[in-house]
From TrEMBL:
Pfam families in the cross-refs: Glyoxalase
Segments forming domain VOC: 1-127
CDD domains: VOC_like
Protein name: VOC family protein
Cited Gene3D superfamilies: 2,3-Dihydroxybiphenyl 1,2-Dioxygenase, domain 1
Length: 128
């Protein structure tokens, strides 16, 4: 068994697609119209057949309170692995990304947390 699709709830799919592709560097995998929403996934260009991230609309009534609570408590919605957190944070900062947690070493891992402009906090992490 392996993870095929994971999702992150987004306020606007088109805004999310631009951010996740143009800023974070993912590539669009699927874009299937489903009425007012789309089955819209992105993948890492390093693993195009790997786990897909579904940019899922935040339309369900339970989603907004959930997202708001996570952000208020500083809890990331998901975590992405990078080779070098400080370097990636610098690259993202140059693109205008706002960080809520600067790179922080915690034993064998380094993490940072940023706002994805779609209602979520996202963590980047690397291990030593």
């Amino acid at each position: 068994m392996r993870i095929h699709v994971s999702s992150v709830f987004v306020d606007d799919q088109e805004t999310a697609l631009r951010f996740y592709t143009e800023v974070l560097g993912f590539v669009k995998k699927h874009d299937v119209p489903l009425g007012e929403a789309r089955w819209l996934t992105v993948v890492s260009p390093e693993d195009p057949d790997g786990t897909e991230l579904l940019l899922e609309p935040s339309g369900h009534p339970a989603v907004q309170p959930y997202k708001t609570a996570l952000v208020q408590d500083g809890i990331p919605a998901t975590s992405f692995a990078v080779d070098d957190v400080p370097a990636e944070a610098g690259r993202l900062r140059e693109l205008g990304v706002q960080f809520t947690q600067e790179p922080l070493e915690m034993g064998p891992v380094t993490t940072a947390v940023f706002d994805d402009t779609c209602g979520n906090l996202i963590q980047i992490v690397h291990s030593k």
